Amino acid sequence: MRVVTAFEQQVYEAISAIPCGKVTTYKYLAQRLGCGSAQAVGQALKRNPHAPQVPCHRVINSQLKIAGYMGQVSGEEVQRKIDLLAAEGVEFDSDGYLEDCSLVLEEW
DNA sequence: AGGGTGACTGCTA
DNA sequence: GTAGCAGCCACCC
After folding, report:
1. I need a surface site. Which of A7, A8, A14, A60 has the fewest CB within 10 A?
2. How far apart are CA A108 and CA A104, in angstroms?
3. Is A56 a catalytic residue?
4. Which residue stretches of A55-96 are H helix?
5. Can you give the distance from the CA of residue A1 to the C1' of nucleotide B9 in angstroms?
6. Can you give the residue ranges of the Methylated-DNA-[protein]-cysteine S-methyltransferase DNA binding domain (predicted)?
């Protein structure tokens, strides 16, 4: 049983609160949590005990690129997430970059 | 108690 | 424009 700290809980809550068809960045998310360190957010998602309940694919980096695993798009698992995002209206490039940067939600 | 890691970011060469 | 280095916070061993 993994101990979900308050910080992680906030991360999951924030991600879960992201409206459909929208995405956000690690930086803004971290800033909203009052940390300013996206690395900490990445840690929380890495330890993500909530699985699909927490759509981590909605979180992208500052370069508007999807963060699948190890910061790079590797594996068809991530590709599936991209497809899922596309179904919500968020289309990504074949390189994993967000096509429409206006879909990035900076406040929610 | 201390050190190392990481799904990141930003600056500099 | 591309590549490499340092800084940052939280979690794990």
Report:
1. A7
2. 11
3. yes
4. 76-88
5. 31
6. 6-90
